[in-house]
Design brief:
homodimer, 393 residues, alpha/beta, Aspartate Aminotransferase, domain 1, Aspartate Aminotransferase, domain 2, 2 domains, seven-stranded mixed sheet, four-stranded antiparallel sheet, 14 helices, globular
Chain lengths: 393, 393
């Protein structure tokens, strides 16, 4: 497949690179899900997930893509014929709209526009207008790199007597979303981003108010029904209502241990430095960010590609010639932006590698770029922050 | 964890053992789901799944437990307030009842009883009585080892103008269910049984009549909506509507190649010989099968444990002292039966190992068993069938 002289580098915001220790654990023989050896892993994951969600709530686990956990929020909280407010600013926010429509809710859509943040004041206005009692929004919008102010949005929702469910699939573990401190009712996440595992596990941290609301409107859900999974996970020992993806849990157990060993605050610091370095590299290349300059936007850095070149060729050249896989733009942004991830198992030299390849691909696409200018700007950030800023091994 | 002098043997009907080649493939660095290297794997899996389902239909893939694919069948086929017929004979059949109730269908439940087969004549009577236009049933009922005559049940359903959806989670790839030849409308399966992969992928082979019926009743589904996944998988190149569990697909690709290399008929033959040997071992131990003597029941062999011993102690001793994990009875059968699996990556000496440990555990539980009597009976079957009957390497 790959040219043996070109190493492969995965720099997308999901799937993200897997630490070798996680891969090694997953290569061990499969465990029976009711055997003590697995139950131990499972119970430990349930506890450690609470630490990452910064919550005392149950963190419900599903064998699913991250969208499955989003669906669980809609299936348990939205009601046919009743208003639901979606506050979106990109592709994944719009998925909330599709989900709510599929479940028959009357959707009030606050569309902040791709590349913008959702404004709390606007949410307040739309909540009053619609009378919605549940809000669906996004922490880190992967399609644009924008990170919303979930604390403020939660406050606004609660002031209006509404619950809030937040898609933190790409954000959880990269940027802070302390669920209990901010009183976020529902936080959904996936295994394949900052949790450093392959895709296939989806999570929902669910508070009591959300569980109560769900219990008041049963039906039209089974696999994603929170009650069923809560009951199983609260058993002693905990028991999944459906065959769990045992291999992914074995990997998750190792990844969560690594996060615990690095320290959650240190993990956030690392992402902050990685994000800062990426933004410095963009400036060093005299290019523009797509979206606002934001000290919290530390999951994905979206870069406006220079006009007059074939934008789609840049990620393609990076991947096919240099072995560095980044993401281009999705939907309306196709060919217009490049998205460089730094979410999960990423270190300083992943950023320099990515920008080195990015510069080379820009040059090949005919853009007059000074080779090393972006890399150098990133290096300066890393030195200033004090190396080592390596990812845990 | 495990005593280093005791090797571990996984002899349950899911999760099942994983071939080393599958584990090795999954330990490779993660692929981006839109990268050519993954799309190649994905497209090949979609094609090879058709071979195992023996169908030209789309085989829809979900990141989920097998129950997720079952839910997809109910979410797409059942209608609130309309009758749905569930023909069950054990725990997993009863899951269809719970699912149909969750989706608001009027459930007509043909309960054949645990350990019995569903009788086609009885299905015919209940279909006429209920007027149901969709039937949910089970190929291999993992809780009892019973394998239903899906060909006959399909014929009866179609004669009554009803669609039929079959839970083949533990059966597909172990016992024949040629979807197109038998015209089974929907066949659902999972990755962790005869497909020799870890749990986390669920499949639904869906025929045109079922797709048409689903299209006529949209709503109340998103993640498991067939239309969305059909549209993605039919693109060129195919594209999953949600981030696919890339690592599991990489493993599945290897497992499906192994099945292709062994040959599907040879895979069925191997399971036939394994099942026959297991039943011979039971007779050799002068014990009784739970359920009918059946040449097709080649997924799980359920054995009535002798009276007067602590039944629950047998699987426990096998696992804790001998490192051999089998399943005991579920629900009402707890402590009453032992279930030995031979579904997936199983070879002749997995059966002799399991029965050797079973005999030793029976002796330890106080049952007067002739050591080697079960093993010997199995050996005779293997010799008569003509060794080698090894699983593919």
């Amino acid at each position: 497949m790959a040219n043996p002289f070109v190493k492969q580098y995965l720099m997308t915001a999901g799937p993200t690179p897997i630490p070798p220790a996680v891969s090694e654990a997953m290569a061990q023989p499969v465990l029976y899900h009711r055997a003590p050896a697995f139950i131990e892993v499972y119970a430990r994951c349930l506890e450690r997930l609470k630490t990452v969600f910064q919550t005392e709530n149950d963190v419900l686990c599903f064998a699913a893509s991250g969208s499955g956990a989003m669906e669980s929020a809609v299936a348990n909280l939205a009601r046919p014929g009743e208003p639901a407010l979606v506050a979106s600013c990109g592709k994944f926010g719009e998925r909330w709209v599709e989900l709510c429509e599929a479940y028959g809710a009357e959707v009030a859509h606050l569309d902040a526009g791709w590349g913008n943040r959702v404004e709390p004041g606007e949410l307040e206005r739309r909540l009053a207008e619609s009378g919605a009692k549940v809000v669906f929004t996004t922490l880190s919008e992967t399609s644009t790199g924008v990170v919303n102010d979930v604390q403020a949005l939660t406050q606004v929702a609660h002031d209006a007597g509404a619950l809030i469910a937040v898609d933190a699939v790409s954000g959880l573990g990269a940027v802070p979303i302390p669920q209990d401190e901010w009183q976020v009712d529902v936080v959904v996440a996936g295994s394949q981003k900052a949790l450093m595992c392959p895709p296939g596990l989806a999570f929902a941290g669910v508070g009591q108010a959300a569980l109560d609301h769900a219990a008041a409107g049963p039906g039209h859900r089974y696999y994603f029904d929170w009650r069923r999974t809560v009951e199983g996970q609260r058993k002693d020992p905990p028991d999944s209502p459906f065959t769990p993806a045992v291999t992914l849990f074995v990997g998750l157990d190792v990844a969560l241990r690594m996060i615990a060993e690095e320290g959650l605050d240190e993990v956030f610091d690392r992402h902050r430095i990685l994000g800062r370095a990426a933004r410095a590299a963009v400036r060093g290349l005299e290019l523009d960010l797509f979206g606002p300059e934001d000290e919290n936007a530390n999951v994905v850095t979206a870069i406006k590609l220079p006009e007059g070149i074939d934008g789609a060729a840049v990620p393609k050249t990076m991947r096919d010639r240099f072995g560095v896989t980044i993401a281009g733009g999705q939907g309306r942004l196709k060919g217009k932006i490049a998205r460089i991830a730094h979410c999960g198992y990423f270190s300083a030299f992943d950023i320099t590698t990515t920008f080195a390849a990015f510069e080379m691909a820009l040059r090949e696409a005919g853009h007059d770029v000074e080779l090393g200018a972006g890399v150098g700007a990133a290096q300066a950030v890393f030195l200033e922050a004090g190396v080592p800023v390596a990812a845990p091994v």
